Amino acid sequence: MKTTLTALLALGTVAQISTASAAPKISAQSIIVNPAQPDLNVSVRVNKDTTGAQNPAYRIDERISISTTVNRDAYVYLFNVNPDGSVDQVLPNRLSGENFVKANTTTTFPAADANFTYTVGGPIGQNKVLALASLTPLNLDQISSFKTAQDQFATVTAKGQDGLAQALSIVVTPLPQNSWVSDTAFYTVAAQNPVTTGSLFVGTNVSGATVTLNGQRLGGANVTYSNLRAGTYPVRVQAPGYSDYTTTVTIRAGGTTNVNVEFAQAFTPAPAPAPVSTGNNVLDFIGTLLGAITNTQMQDPARSAYDRKVSDLQAQGYGLQQTRQTNTGFVGTLAKGGSTVTVTVDRGANRTVRVNVSETTTYRY
Fold it and tell me: Which UniProt keywords are listed (predicted)?
């Protein structure tokens, strides 16, 4: 959200807090969360969505207001992550005065009697508003600063959702458990004129992720991709060290489709295949002896057959999703567009290898 006047919200109070610390969790959905689940609560809403469960659309130059509610006296900090990755600090600022919010009250920014307004600007696409509540004031010097004495709003140095999450993690990590909490609201900035294309936002909780839509690589995650033709497409999200995430998304004209991917467990490659029997005791002995001498082992014929078949399919545009070793060979899954291919290779009797390829294609009508 590029606002005519931007603002950030801070929450603070002195209360009984525990001395244990809770490491923050970077989240695709909520940017940053406290895994300790404190009894401190904060909610953030935009004026077109009082439930917090929707993704309302705003036109450029349309007014917008942001409201927050806390169950305990606290300091609330508001950030807006724009579709292009830039971050606005909504509160605190030099126009709104105190950023302290009383327990069980709802405070709206800007207030009804404020001498300024928020006006939605570009770019078009998905926006996220992060509210971070703390029982004590936070030091944001490493995240944002007022460049001059005349600036009414601080400049945020963090870029993108993941950059903001990493920066805020450093700020809240020393805090005691149960002393901070966050919430996120969503809204879309739409074009002034009716459009036949839509946008896709893919959020992740890790860095270095890439997005592929309908077989075409779009680029990195935590970015809004616009001017996408309306329709239903397969999407794949990949991150180094993690298993691929695949799903189907529907792009709607004039709207933004949200996909949030929580990579939870790093992908562990299958262990190197153990020496296999050729079916001939003499050949097995010779192979073991040669392996001991050369510090190698005989090539598994099932693996060779599997690798050749996978290479053939990759040359046809299929992408390898996973490889799994079985007691008798190997099983792999590849995908291209709406088609999924399973390759099964088994070692048989009499030194034979069986290769089976099955394909499943999903059509939409």
Answer: Signal
